[in-house]
Design a protein that fits this description.
By secondary structure, the protein is mainly beta. It contains two helices and nine strands, in the order ααβββββββββ. Strands 3-2-5-8-9 form a five-stranded antiparallel beta sheet, with no helix packed on it. Strands 4-1-6-7 form a four-stranded antiparallel beta sheet, with no helix packed on it. A hairpin with a 6-residue loop joins strand 2 and strand 3. It is elongated, with a radius of gyration of 20 Å.
């Protein structure tokens, strides 16, 4: 039997109605839905993205030293970041050279700068990240 689900390409896959219909079709009606997490749209936001090409845990602490974004997957995305000085901490899983990419997007334009850094396994590497988008094209990275 054919089923009709109203919505765009994304909604027919991730809406609660669509997921319930798919579960019924698969004869899995007793499976409960996981709590949905809202993800801001990239095109409507300012983004600061930090990625590393080697396995590491990273933390980015905001200019007020209040909150840190911590990721185990070697990538951090900050939506609508505050202007100021950030602290970037990296706990690498290996000793090797690595490329750290810092990208800044304003919803229209995107710029990236790549830094080559040396990682030492289980040794904390800390940097000062200077984020003043009106004064510079891409945030500057300064080793601490």
């Amino acid at each position: 039997d054919n089923e009709t689900i109203n919505g765009n390409h994304g909604e027919i896959i991730y809406s609660d109605e669509a997921i319930n219909r798919i579960l019924q079709f698969l004869d899995l009606p007793k499976v409960s839905l996981a709590k949905a997490t809202s993800v801001p749209e990239e095109t409507s936001q300012k983004l600061l993205t930090i990625s590393l090409d080697q396995p590491a845990k990273m933390q980015l602490t905001d200019p007020k030293n209040k909150k840190g974004l911590t990721e185990e997957e070697s990538i951090i995305v900050s939506y609508n970041p505050e202007i100021g000085l950030y602290k970037l901490s990296i706990w690498p899983n290996i000793s090797d050279n690595a490329y750290l990419n810092i990208s800044q997007t304003d919803g229209i334009n995107s710029e990236t700068k790549t830094y080559k850094i040396k990682l030492r396994k289980n040794r904390l590497a800390e940097y000062l990240l200077v984020y003043f988008p009106s004064q510079t094209t891409v945030p500057k990275l300064i080793p601490l």
